[in-house]
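Data availability (excerpt). The following record was deposited with the supplementary files.
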Amino acid sequence: MKRKHFELLKKLPLFVGLEEKRIQEIIGTAQPCEFPRGKIIFQQGDPADWFYVILQGWVKVFRVSEEGNEAVLGVFSRGDTVADAAMFIGKRYPASAQIVAEATLLRIDGVRLRQSIHDDSEIAFSLLASMSHHMKNLTDQVAQMKLYHGPERVALFLLRLCPLPEGPAVISLPYEKSLVAARLGMQPESLSRALSKLRDIGVTVNQGHVVVNDVAKLAKFVNADPVHSIKNGRGGRA
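Predicted structure:
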């Protein structure tokens, strides 16, 4: 494994504070694997034998109702873990996961994680920290859907993809607009209307790219701290 990938692991809530030797014991011989867009990495109801660390790219976690309707539970990117809690909830995946932009993942054996928790209570606290991190993100998403109108939700989403807290920015949308809309709890046509309303503050769309004339002005639109939004986002977090 490349050193930059190991350094990323050390910053994850699941591993932060652990010695490198302990982290290595948990991941075992796991090596990064590349997955193409559209690849299903696990399906709802499958045995939860593995969990994943996203080293690059984007992963959608979703559920499908009996009527065939899809509900997007989250879209995750570099530095996120996927399904680390699933192995302790009935030991089956409660949802499905799909690659939505070409991704590099580290697949870690769940048996090793469970054994590590059994051997070392510090790992259990790390898992709780990771689950709390996921819960905070979900709570933030729900709060945005309840407290913000469509244009504000889109503005916050774009802020998290901006590389700098001020000046102009050109953003490549990491996945198709229909998924962006689902991620923001909107219909695709509502997303289009919201983007149109942001033109007055210098936001324009050209195919898969969004041009932001002034990132600070976009942040002011939603009364957000641009530095905080960018540091805590999935853009570099959706």
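Summary of structural features: The beta strands are 32-35, 40-42, 50-64, 70-76, 81-82, 96-109, 169-172, 203-206, 209-212.
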